[in-house]
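Known limitations

Structure tokens in this collection are predictions and should be treated as such. Users comparing against experimental data should check residue numbering before alignment. To illustrate the layout, the record for DUF1122 domain-containing protein is reproduced below. The input appears on top and the generated tokens appear beneath it.
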Amino acid sequence: MIEGEVSGYKLSYKNLRKSHIRELYYFELYLGDRFVGWCNYFTGRGEYVPWIEIDYDPWPREEGTEVELFKFFYNLLPPMGRLFVTYEKDKETEEMIFKGYHAMDTPLGFSMLRAGFTWFKVWYYPEGGNEGAPKLQGNRPLNEEVARRELEEALEEVKREEVRRWILEHVKGK
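Generated tokens:
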């Protein structure tokens, strides 16, 4: 399933369960011995790309491991794969979303961006509340050309100068 190393910590899972959908797994995710969150991992089927959803406790940001954690998921997912991360326990991100900031401007979204995700969506009420908690969706780009285009488009919407500078530096390199 999902195992590896992130910033010197062992990334592991516990209590793996299958769902009624054969490609969908549920489990608890740990970084070292600390609980990161409940995960859903859809491994993909045909034209349905893989995705990972984490009901996330943002403590890895305080430890300086959040970007590397999301980079692990970025590398696990194929092009066009999706990472969904809840933000209910992340009050700063939640407040910024409700103030109208772009997902990339938030602490959570900026970490996902630095991990490689370039297209974002805010799910305020996923499927009318039937698909879990509010979350950010980040998509892995299909290729470098798509990544550059998505970052250029985001420049029109992001407000924080730190995020704009990061995007400009990375658009030049693509």
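For this record: Helices lie at 59-63, 66-76, 91-98, 107-115, 144-154, 161-172. Residues 4-145 form a domain with the Aminopeptidase fold (CATH 3.40.630.30). Please report discrepancies through the issue tracker.
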